[in-house]
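Design job #97: recover the sequence.
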């Protein structure tokens, strides 16, 4: 199976490359070869290769900047997928990575996860742009997988964000800085190495096309996540739980973006994923 991996050198793309099964031949263009903002570059590249499937990991992920960089966010997260579709044989399936931020967080009242059949209602530009990308894919390509995940972190770090949450916590703790971490926003931390293996299972086991939530199981606040990072790393730090109102941001964030699945792909407890990550970077 020949697969074109867009965004192959980002945080998730790196782990997809590491975990690719032997039956897969990956085509991994650099950004200058396949920039989804450049119609001609996309057209030229796709015309030169024959692939059986495309995985799109390219994304604009700067949540706060998106409130002002609206055009940039939509250019990558929604119009970018249309650029790929316009230059593709419509029989070629597309795997597209989406986000927990397509939901508004109101299920926190019931402490219930968001499932694949819950109605999205994003509350910031980033989430809206990602949901628009979902709708474009669903309405133009019949054979598609939309994968929503949550609070990603991996060894490669997120280039669009300049790292990830565990790296930030570890860096500050080693520098002896006091940590103030939000304790009233809940999510599912997801190790991209484990997510990548879940994606490959979806593809190679030929699951039915559609929307899938793939995360670890359980949930926590960012404060609880930070404490576990320190524990697994064997570090101590002065860490204080604070409310989200003490860190005003341009973009509103859902206070509850816990994902669950009704479709059977789970990655195991989030604590186990984190422990694996800490061992990988130690």
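Job complete. Output follows.
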């Amino acid at each position: 199976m020949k697969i074109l991996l867009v965004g192959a050198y980002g945080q998730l793309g790196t782990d997809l490359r590491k975990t690719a099964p032997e039956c897969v031949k990956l085509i991994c263009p650099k950004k200058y070869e396949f920039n989804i903002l450049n119609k001609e570059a996309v057209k030229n590249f796709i015309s030169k290769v024959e692939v059986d499937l495309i995985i799109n990991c390219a994304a604009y992920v700067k949540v706060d900047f998106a409130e002002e960089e609206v055009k940039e966010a939509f250019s990558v997260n929604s119009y970018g997928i249309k650029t790929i579709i316009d230059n593709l044989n419509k029989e070629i399936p597309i795997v597209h990575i989406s986000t927990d931020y397509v939901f508004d967080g109101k299920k926190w009242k019931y402490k219930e996860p968001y499932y694949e059949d819950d109605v999205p209602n994003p509350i910031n530009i980033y989430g809206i742009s990602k949901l628009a990308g979902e709708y474009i894919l669903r309405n133009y390509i019949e054979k598609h997988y939309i994968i929503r995940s949550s609070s990603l972190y991996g060894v490669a770090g997120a280039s669009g964000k300049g790292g990830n949450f565990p790296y930030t916590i570890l860096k500050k703790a080693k520098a002896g800085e006091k940590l103030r971490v939000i304790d009233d926003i809940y999510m599912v931390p997801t190790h991209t190495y484990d997510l990548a293996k879940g994606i490959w299972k979806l593809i190679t086991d030929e699951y039915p096309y559609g929307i899938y939530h793939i995360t670890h199981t359980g949930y926590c606040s960012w404060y609880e996540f930070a404490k576990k990072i320190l524990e697994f790393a064997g570090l101590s730090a002065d860490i204080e739980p604070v409310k989200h109102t003490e860190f005003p941001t341009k973009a509103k964030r859902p206070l509850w973006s816990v994902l669950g699945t009704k479709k059977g792909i789970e990655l195991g407890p989030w604590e186990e994923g984190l422990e694996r990550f800490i061992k990988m970077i130690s």
